[in-house]
Structure formats: structure tokens, C-alpha cells
Fold this sequence. Notes:
Helix 7 (about 170-175) crosses helix 12 (about 250-275) and helix 8 (about 180-195) crosses helix 9. The chain folds into two domains: about 5-165, NAD(P)-binding Rossmann-like Domain (Rossmann fold), CATH 3.40.50; about 180-260, ProC C-terminal domain-like fold (Orthogonal Bundle). The chain has twelve helices and seven strands. The two termini are about 35 Å apart. It is α/β, with parallel strands linked by helices.
Amino acid sequence: xxxxxxxxxLGAGAxxxxxxxxxxxxxxxxxxxxxxxxxxxxxxxxxxxxNFGVVADANQKDSSIQDADILILAMKPKDVHSALExxxxxxxxxxxxxxxxxxxxxxxISSLLGHHAPVIRTMPNTSATIGLSxxxxxxxxxxxxxxxxxxxxxxxxxxxxxxxxxxxLDAVTxxxxxxxxxxxxxxxxxxxxxxxxxxxxxxxxxxxxxxxxGAAHMLIETxxxxxxxxxxxxxxxxxxxxxxxxxxxxxxxxxxxSCILRATERSKELGALLSESKS
Length: 279
């Protein structure tokens, strides 16, 4: 699908590296067909050239952008406006533009480019660095199903992909985009509780991580509703029941629901701010 495509990354941060590594590890593109650019960090580009064998020659930056079949926008949200204004004259409507920039809509990207190139917007998460991202993607107005499949093929190299409407991508951001941090916070709390209960920290950590892995696999492999699985391990008046009752007393479920809704709301706020400040 990507065998004859040239790909150019605009931005060289951690997410760009994760997507790049996934594409190369899955052999869906050859290193020589990939170029990567950033504004000023030459050391970072040299590092990616050394690690992956891609093209990152400052003297070829313009031609790399012009010749690319696929442009992957991986700069910081605050830099999107200036970056696209700087390179818009090098782009054309036949290129596929894929964004991993949080909060920036496909229509805003199109307005900055000044033409109707197909735009796909994505929301991976930091687990992309180990090939286990949960990525939401959506297509802009001029993107076809073929463009969407191409983008899916790329992001499946770093994990699983779900297609959503663009209006739902803020919810994806609030759920899976920010989700790893919620899990890490949960692990912190469980570890603190285990230490207070008398376990050594390293022992607690090992038990917690395996418990998370096992629970996730139970959900995946059984396909059962989480409530049903919870009930199966909850004996009346047992230890699990006592623990769950304490969580309910602290409104655990309400806190998580509010957490996701607030993160979703903040994603919308930041997107609006970025668009309005540059209009």
C-alpha cells in the first residue's frame, strides 16, 4: 500500500519517532522513502538518521516536502500555524496530509494550506513508543475512504486504530489520548496502598502490573462486559466487596467519569484557542 509512496514528517518529536519506527519495523515503507524535518534541532535529525537511515538533509528540505506523497504533521500545536504558512507553497492538493497534532481540526489545516488536499486527523497515545497505541482517526472533507485506509495502515503499525467522526475526536483525546496517565495514577495509588499494607515497593509493583495485564487480557479474550467480570470475582462480604465498597464511598466511578469529561472539554477548549488565536 505504501510501497511506492514517499513520506515526509514535519516535526521530529517522540510521536514522530514512534510512528516512523512502527512503519519501518513493519516494513511498510523503506527508510530511503522517508524524510524528516524540523525547524532548528540538527542534533535530533542526525539522531534519527543514525537510528533509522531516513533522509534529513537541511539542503533537501524543500524538495522533500514537494516530492512527498504523504505529509505527516507532527509539530507542536502552537507551531502549526507558522509551520504550515512557511511551507504551504511547497504543498499541493495531490498530497495526503496526516496530522498527529492534538486539537487542530482538518478544516483549520486545510485553511492554512490554502488548497483542498485530503486531510486525515489522528489521536495516538504515548504507548505508540512500544507499538501499543490506541489511535482514533477521522477524515476531513476531501479525504476519501482510500485515504482513510492508507492512514489506518500507517497507524496500525503502532497499535490498534478506530475510525470516528471528527466531532468525537476530543472524546478520544480525553479517553485514550490522556488515558495512560490515568492508569499510571491508578498504579501509583495501588502501590502506595500496598506499601502501607506491608508489601515492599518492588513486590507491589510486580503484582500490580501483572494484575493489570491479566485483567486486560480477560476483557479482550472473554469479550465479557466488565461489570460481569467484576461480579464474578466479588464474593458477598468478601475482601473484594470490602474494597469496592470503599471505592464507592469515595465516588470512584463518578470521579473517573468526570475526569474523562473534563479532559474532553479541555481538548475542545485548547482546539478553539489555537484556531481563534491564529484567525
